[in-house]
Amino acid sequence: MSLFAPLEKYWRTISTAYPWHFIGFLLLAMIIPKVYELSNVYWIGQISFDALAITEQYEFIAVTIEIVNEAIPFGILALIAQNYHNREKVISILKAGLILQLFFSLIVTCIVVFFTNEFVATIGTPAEIVELTKSYLLLKSIALPFEAVAFILLIAIKSLQKGKEALILVSISVFINVILDLLLVSNTSISMQLGIQGVAIGYVISKVVLMIISVAYTLHLLQLGWVTIIQTKWKEEVVPLFRIGGWTGLDSLVRNSGYIGLLLVLNLLGTNEFGGYGLAMWVMWTLLIPVLALGEGTSIVVGNYFGERRFTDLLNVVKVSMVLVIGIMLSIAVIGIFFWEDLSRFLNPNPDMISYSVETFWWLIIPYIGFGIGTILRSVFYGTGQTRYIFYISCFINIGLIVPFVALVVLGIVPASFTSIMMFYMIAFLVDPLLAYIGVRRVISQKMNLPGYQKTLLEGSN
């Protein structure tokens, strides 16, 4: 008998209920748009040395939108995943989510459109790129309501375990964006070469078209007519959506408030520091695609199994995803050690930004391994709807660690430097998985007392 036979038997046992095909489709649905984003960053880098820094100013709006996108959508993910066999319930949840998401995104759009000057002044944009930043942010913010609708519909499709359908929708979106980049931004002979404005215009057009396609595609998948949509009741789903999404929204508010504080400090250091960090994040989040796909897929499947009271399968799915993520993160570390500088140079020719990108990698690679582990642990919170623990963790890290640091920098007590900012990122990422593990153990111990849990455990052990 092989020494690894017990491990092989255990792996076969825990991976039996793992949705390999569904996770595979989600992975492709994330890889394809990220490949496009890399090409988009490449074209932006060819515009000018400052172009990437200008487009990175949108990060401040993106953070605000992320707060909206991590409230209602996560409520939709959990509730639809738990009720994915109940078509009427799914339609009701989806209608409520669309109404709420559209309302909040319109508020953000109005704020940016009517207060662009004040917004740019607040985020500390370097003087040499202020005017271009204003026009870029104004144009791009127009797309927010259209993007919100498309995003909600994509989340709903994924939550129904329709990975192939989600992949088709994403592929159509990427095709539209590639064509628009070639026509508006690239330096090819067929391009209008509109520069930064072309990037924003293409973004708006693509989101409008994507929303139209997403609506039509969802109506087809759910076999919906407009009469059914109008007649479907939705108000009773508002409270459950906020009960789950409210905590994730608060978490996002606290977490991104800390993040914005660090970005403000980083922005004050200069264009190269800010752009270099942004460049590193493009590379890192590209390599993290498999981790993000596993995290999203695990959250959905946890919700599916939780709704069906398949608790043993639920835990086994989390275990398999954890093993896969650890392997992926170690692979990313090896790739970064040998190729990070080359990857950064491919995306942007600015040598100073490349230097800061490499420094960011060495500071954050070990903490990002912790981030990968925490991503899978948090899937238990999302899938079961116990999202308050995510908020508790965020409060500890941001209010307890990051906000005091930003305050000390603003007051001049601690000098602002690239090294000090990276140090605090490192601390935050390392603390996160430890707190998530404590929360997951608490959630699991609570769910063991639910009706049907002990029965499922006994069945799973036979």
Number of domains: 1
* Whole-number mean pLDDT: 85
**General form:** globular
What's the β-strand tally?
0
Q: Strand fraction band? A: under 5%
Biggest sheet descriptor: none
What letter string, H or E per element, gives the SSE order? HHHHHHHHHHHHHHHHHHHH
Q: Structural class of the helix and strand makeup?
A: mainly alpha
Individual helix count:
20
Q: Radius of gyration from the CA trace?
A: 22 Å
Uncertain ranges: 453-462
How many angstroms does the end-to-end distance come to? 23 Å
Secondary structure: helix percent: over 70%
Defining key terms:
84% helix, 20 helices, 462 residues, mainly alpha, globular, disordered C terminus
Description:
There is one protein chain. The chain is mostly helical and about 450 residues long. The chain has one domain. Helix content is about 85%, strand content about 0%. It has 20 helices and no strands. It has helices at about 5-15, 20-45, 50-55, 60-70, 70-80, 85-115, 115-120, 130-140, 145-160, 165-185, 195-220, 225-230, 240-270, 270-285, 290-305, 310-345, 350-385, 390-410, 420-445, 455-460. Residues about 455-460 have low confidence and may be disordered. It is found in: Cell membrane.
